[in-house]
Amino acid sequence: MNKGHNSKKVGGVAVDQLKSIIARVEKLEAEKAGIAADIRDVFAEAKGNGYCTKAIRTILKMRKQDASEREEQENILDVYLNALGMLPLFEGEGEAA
Amino acid sequence: MNKGHNSKKVGGVAVDQLKSIIARVEKLEAEKAGIAADIRDVFAEAKGNGYCTKAIRTILKMRKQDASEREEQENILDVYLNALGMLPLFEGEGEAA
Amino acid sequence: MNKGHNSKKVGGVAVDQLKSIIARVEKLEAEKAGIAADIRDVFAEAKGNGYCTKAIRTILKMRKQDASEREEQENILDVYLNALGMLPLFEGEGEAA
Amino acid sequence: MNKGHNSKKVGGVAVDQLKSIIARVEKLEAEKAGIAADIRDVFAEAKGNGYCTKAIRTILKMRKQDASEREEQENILDVYLNALGMLPLFEGEGEAA
């Protein structure tokens, strides 16, 4: 982002530099929006092929997690669900006797 | 949140205490949702009375800002808009000659 | 929100009515912020008592779901995880033979 | 996304197809994250050059709006601010006499 010594100034602002900042961000935002649209297309295609996009999003989130961290998290969740009687298998045992 | 020494434990978890945490959060979340609905009602009423809710939201945001900070922000914005030729009044002067 | 026939107008806007809209929203938003703070307190207390707040949030989300819908969702997720070889129990069976 | 008639199935799920969906989304999300990082770099550079990034973000938002819509929005805002006595220039006139 060169300041350009002979760049025109208005109100102390280097006009070309400000315009360049804005143009660069707008270009990048347009690219980002394009990729977001591509992602929506992949999900729409998956849905069209009968896949459950909610489950796919969960898997994408899980894959971002470190495997051991994920496993630990699932174990804690099971302990709590069991304590609350929310685990079908452990219904009887979990609930207050 | 008393632990209650004779509170039943499942998998090392004090069942009553966990249930109380969940119940308290759910109660508070229900109250919060109720108030969010009340806010929506006020905006719906204002809209019904012909008010522009977008402008009202802008004013609510402005009122949260410290007045001098807001003024400084508006001055900077005007300088930039003028430099970019986006200020109607200063169109001619702002733009590169 | 009574318009009040003798309410002062500025630029065609019933000043008192606009002020009342803003005051009501600000009051409700303050109440909502108060409850949000209470929720944070409950989570902080739970954390202080050694609970995993992430697991508690997951349970709160699960409890908002219809039980059968939740079960169906978990079944689909297991089928996909198994197909991708991401289920520890089914590692051998899931992966390409 | 061809189904591929001889594609291996687990639990009724075409494994390769599911893997391809996940791989494509992950690739696109990585690209999107890269561009988001580029945008952050431009703002960091602008900040380093003394620009107010908040004002730049406001201008980017304004440029996404249709000019006449933006102008109408600003006029309504001024009318309301004036009615509430929040416009410095019109302080005296706006406020209840």
Kindly describe this structure:
Chains A, B, C, D: It comes from Limnoglobus roseus. Chains A, B, C, D: One of its GO terms (molecular function) is DNA binding. Chains A, B, C, D: This is GapR-like DNA-binding domain-containing protein. Chains A, B, C, D: Residues 15-85 form the GapR-like DNA-binding domain. The structure is a homotetramer of 97-residue chains. Chain A contains four helices and two strands, in the order ββαααα. Chain A is mainly α and 97 residues long. Chain A has a domain at 8-51. In chain A, strands 1-2 form a two-stranded antiparallel sheet. In chain A, strand 1 (9-10) and strand 2 (13-14) form a beta hairpin. Chains A and D meet through helix 1 and helix 2 of A and helix 1 and helix 2 of D.
From N to C, what is the helix and strand string of chain A?
A: EEHHHH
Q: Give the CA-based shape of chain A.
A: elongated
Low-confidence segments of chain A, given as residue ranges, are 90-97
How many DSSP-defined strands of chain A? 2
* Termini separation of chain A: 70 Å
> What portion of the residues of chain A fall into strands of 2 or more residues?
under 5%
